[in-house]
Specification:
Blueprint lengths: L1 H21 L25 E5 L8 E8 L5 E2 L3 E7 L5 E9 L7 E2 L5 E9 L9 E7 L5 E8 L26
Antiparallel strand pairs: 1-2, 2-7, 3-6, 4-5, 4-8, 8-9
Length: about 180
């Protein structure tokens, strides 16, 4: 009797493991940032961005880490801006702004490696896929020194669309298939 119970138990465990192993694995690729699809302006340099959590969760906060080298100096007046862009190029929620340098004497020389951390960036509750994420370094004159852009889906196509209202950016976006 004990042998039969052990055999049944082993078979059930084996079936459970095989069944679990055959389930599809939902591994989303990391969000990949690239050049910003800006129009009516020369293409600014880009930089690396990592986000946590990845993928982002609507209505929660996230951390953004911007790293790289750009040909412009980053000063105490440079601002890191994070914006969420929806279909038709409309901004979703309010942009997140943070000084690129926390110290009053901060200056990062041109072409020197930088790392800027932005914690507790609010992800809008009403963000729905597909959406874009723009991260930029902007000077006090509202010039985009560098920009990185990611989209939550692979169906972005450049078109002539209106600019993003009240935005630092003038995007050339279309999320339709």
């Amino acid at each position: 009797m004990n042998r039969n119970l052990i055999l049944v138990f082993v078979l059930l465990v084996t079936l459970s493991v095989v069944n679990a192993a055959s389930l599809p694995q939902h591994r989303k690729e990391k969000t990949k940032f690239g050049a910003c699809p800006l129009k009516n302006t020369p293409q600014p340099p880009t930089f690396n961005v990592t986000i946590n959590p990845d993928p982002l969760r609507p209505g929660q906060t996230a951390s953004f880490i911007a790293t790289g080298r750009i040909p412009s100096e980053i000063t105490k007046d440079t601002v890191l801006v994070v914006e969420f862009i929806g279909k038709g190029g409309n901004r979703i929620g309010k942009p997140f702004n943070k000084p690129a340098c926390e110290k009053k004497t901060c200056t990062i020389k041109a072409n020197k490696k930088f790392t800027i951390n932005a914690n507790n960036v609010p992800v809008p509750k009403d963000v729905t896929s597909p959406y874009g994420i723009a991260v930029a370094l902007v000077n006090p004159s509202n010039d985009v020194l560098a920009c990185a852009f990611a989209v939550s889906a692979d169906d972005i196509h450049p078109i002539d669309s209106d600019s993003v209202p009240n935005s630092h950016f003038d995007f050339d976006l279309d999320f339709s298939s």
